[in-house]
Amino acid sequence: MAYDEELAARIRGLVSEQPGITEQRMFGGLAFLIHGNMAVAASGEGGLLLRVPPEQTGELAGRPHARRFEMRGREMDGWLRVDADGL
């Protein structure tokens, strides 16, 4: 599945004027990096990947349509996946 281009445009509109923002295709999606570090992405699996403070991951993952990001079966503190229905 390709990433949602409308979502990517929404993200771009929110972050484009911030210093150090670049875009890069990653993992089938389009990532937005701040000074080379991924901050948010329109996911190739749909929805959004979002960098959050690691200590807030559990609390934020409890919100509707949000969950911890999982890579290779391992949940990652500091990352959330937000389903398209939650955007």
What layout of secondary structure does this protein have?
Layout: H1 5-15, E1 21-26, E2 29-34, E3 37-42, E4 48-51, H2 57-61, E5 66-71, E6 74-82
Antiparallel strand pairs: 1-2, 2-3, 3-4, 4-6, 5-6
Quaternary structure annotation = single chain
Rg over CA atoms, rounded to whole Å, is: 12 Å
Distance between the termini: 18 Å
Q: How many separate helices?
A: 2
| Major β-sheet annotation | 6 strands, antiparallel
Morphology call = globular
Question: What is the N-to-C order of secondary-structure elements (H for helix, E for strand)?
Answer: HEEEEHEE
List how many beta strands DSSP finds.
6
Helix percentage: 10-25%
Low-confidence stretches: none
The order of strands across the largest sheet is: 1-2-3-4-6-5
Structural class, judged by helices and strands?
Answer: alpha+beta
Strand content: 35-45%
